[in-house]
Amino acid sequence: MANKPRERSRRTQSRRAHSRRAQLFSIDLVVSLAIFLVVLLSATYLLTRMRSNIEAANEKNVLAASAFSALDALSYSPGYPHDWTPTNVNSIGLSLDSNGETAEFSGTRLDAAKLLRFAKLNESDARYLLGLGGFDFRFTLQEVWNASEQSAALVANASHSGIALEPIAYFAADDRDAFALLNGTGVVWDYYWAGSGIEPSHGDARNFYPAVIYGGNPLARADLFNAMLANATARNAYRTIVIEQPNFKLNEYANVSKSALRSFLKARGLIVFEGSVSAADAGQETTPLLVNDLNETLVFVGTQSGSVNQTSFFLDNVSASDKANFTQSKWAVYSNSTRGDAPLFVLVQNATNSSLALVARWDCEKGRIYYVADFNSSFGAYAIPDSSVFNLVGAKLDFGIAPSASASDAFVVQRPVIIQRDWGSLAVAKLVVWKS
Question: What are the structural domains, with CATH classification, of the chain?
Answer without folding.
Answer: 1-155+402-436 (no CATH), 162-379 (3.40.50)
